[in-house]
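Example 3.2
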Amino acid sequence: MQLFGFNIDIRSKRVVALENTVRSLQGQIVAGPSGWGTNYDSLFSGSGVITRQKALSVPAVFAAVDVVSKTLASLPFAPYMRTSTGAEKAVGHPLWAMETIEPSPYTTAFNFRRDLFADTCFGNAYAKISFKGNGRAYKLERLVPENVTVYQNQETGEPFYCVTRTDPGGKLRYEVLMQYEVLHLRGMTIDGWQGLDIASTFSSSLAMSIDATRYGHNYFNNNAAVDATVEFPNPLDGKAREIIENKIGKKHAGINNVGGIMVLDAGAKYNKIGTNPQEAMLNETRTFQAYESCRIFGVPAHMINVLDRSNFNNIEMMDNGFVNYCLMPLAEQCEQEHDVKLLTQSEKTSGSVFHRYDLSGLMRGDMKSRGEYEDKMLKNMVLTINDVREMNNLNEVPWGHTPYAQAGVTPVNEDGTI
């Protein structure tokens, strides 16, 4: 808490007790199916322990997470205040600068939200809320998910968060945060308070993607190392075999020696037996794994540049599906989490202030469809000229607040008469 410009750490007996509970749980091992721990089980799944960083080494996974996070981070998000005619952006509200410009002195609002939604794609995103002496939030600090452990108070059922931090000297220290001190965005959950870890849940599928990428690298790097045999009419002793293998490997193996000429003598015969990546189904496997990544993160294939099943007739519909079924649930969760954790009780009870994500820009379609839509809204008096100008990021005009009827484009009076 910050009071008179000073950071004051006031910990209740309850928080101290929770910290002691956390310390007693730090050494416990979470057992997997084998009973030896989840890390032990993951080591034998094919590619070792699948972490978030290792999963992002798969191009399809990186592209899916990148398009979700940067799209949501670039959309307008702000607190709104209800008015007699609807709602307007709450410019000047104590939360305005923190949420739209600078969540903390170390990052911008765009980068903060992009990191937050990238973390959410993998199951859980956390941000510490710092409060002033008057109880109003003034800073948001993104927490690395790997450094946060969620526990549940066995007496009250309330979750609390243990954050592992490293001092400059390398010493570990633990910080316990209560539920109201943490913005927590999560994916699907089983226990009701922590999202499933995507990297762990889909470790087999992600491991297959990593192995396929690694296989392709080794295949081309070694020029499909064992793709031919050299047959001699007479038996070779061990030393002669070793000399021939080394010379052939030095001159013809590897990607830099593709297309070289091999000179054979002593009746030797070259027999090609290798397969190319197409025959080895490498391309099909990697394409299938790209679709698997799309299924995991709810992203249409064309959004990560997998275009073999896309055409101009269905891309716009898939774009709308991306907004409705992938982005909108995340935006709704973000709005509600900000409402619950950052607004005062009176603001929540009265509904005078709320948060809103503006997704309309993603639903506008192409310029032709957008023009037809705006024309219909104007003619049916659903929108005014200034409403349309605001949608297109244009300034208002003095005469733009008056609706116009379709017949003769005549202004409508306040009593509805023409």
